[in-house]
Design brief:
Blueprint (H helix, E strand, L loop, with lengths): L24 H14 L4 E4 L10 E4 L12 H15 L14 E7 L3 E2 L19 H4 L1 H4 L5 E6 L2 E4 L2 E2 L4 E2 L3 E4 L4 E6 L9 H11 L12 E3 L9 H6 L1
């Protein structure tokens, strides 16, 4: 077929966190109140294409707490840190200094566009305290004694078509969604006051350029990394 449509089935939920900014307290309060009015109970509107054929009806609801299935960021970091230190054998966990460090992962939820591609075309990401990873995750690099312990990633190329220009978009090099980076910092698991604000800011803001277009989304210490079969537990 020449034309096809991708549909999102009914009863699909999307949880979003919005950032509201204002130059003054009065302006900020006005914008927050406006947002609350827009998200009043049972507020419905339509998104996407084919709206004239009754598609795309959605309902927006404001919630005060995190979704019931979501694990708090502090819990995620502490749980993964304990898991790694208890499961690893012959690696960083056998080093006595590892007990004074906190381990956390960054998992890319969408591709991260590499910055400064015109002036920095060659990217060499390697384990250690220094390297190009600091250009991608500058907030992590600012943590006490931060280092990249392990990574598994893949480079990709982002292309597209600009309907405004009527031309292909410039091809951009990026890190693929699903790429994982394991970091450690001198902050201990019992005192995460230094790490938590950085992790919260990164999860909210993302990494790399073109984040307003959906690139650069990431998750800190995804619970997925704590899932392992019995066979995996025996061999880790």
């Amino acid at each position: 077929m020449l034309f096809t449509e991708d549909l999102i089935p009914p009863d699909t939920y999307f949880y979003l966190r919005l950032h509201v900014a204002g130059k003054t307290k009065e302006e900020l309060a006005e914008r927050v109140n406006c947002l609350k009015r827009l998200l009043r109970p049972k507020r419905t509107f339509r998104l996407g294409g084919a709206k004239s054929r009754s598609h795309g009806k959605v309902e927006a609801t404001r919630i005060e707490d995190r979704p019931p299935f979501a694990e708090a960021l502090r819990e995620r970091i502490e749980s993964l840190d304990r898991y790694l230190k208890s499961k690893l054998r012959g690696g960083v966990a056998d080093n006595a200094a590892a007990n004074d460090r906190t381990f956390f992962t960054i998992t890319l939820q969408s591709p991260v566009i590499l910055p400064d591609q015109e002036t920095h075309p060659d990217w060499k990401i390697s384990e250690g305290k220094d390297g190009d990873w600091q250009r991608i995750f500058p907030l992590v690099a600012a943590l006490p004694d931060a280092r990249l312990e392990f990574f598994q990633h893949r480079f990709t190329r982002i292309t597209g078509w600009s309907s405004v220009w009527g031309l292909p978009k410039p091809a951009l090099r990026a890190l693929s969604a699903g790429s994982v980076y394991l970091f450690s910092t001198a902050a201990t698991a019992g005192d995460l006051e230094t790490l938590l604000p950085v992790a919260e800011e990164m999860e909210f803001s993302g990494a790399g350029p073109f984040r307003a277009e959906g690139f650069g989304a990431l998750k800190i210490s995804d619970p997925f990394h704590r899932e392992a079969s019995k066979k995996d537990d025996d061999t880790v």
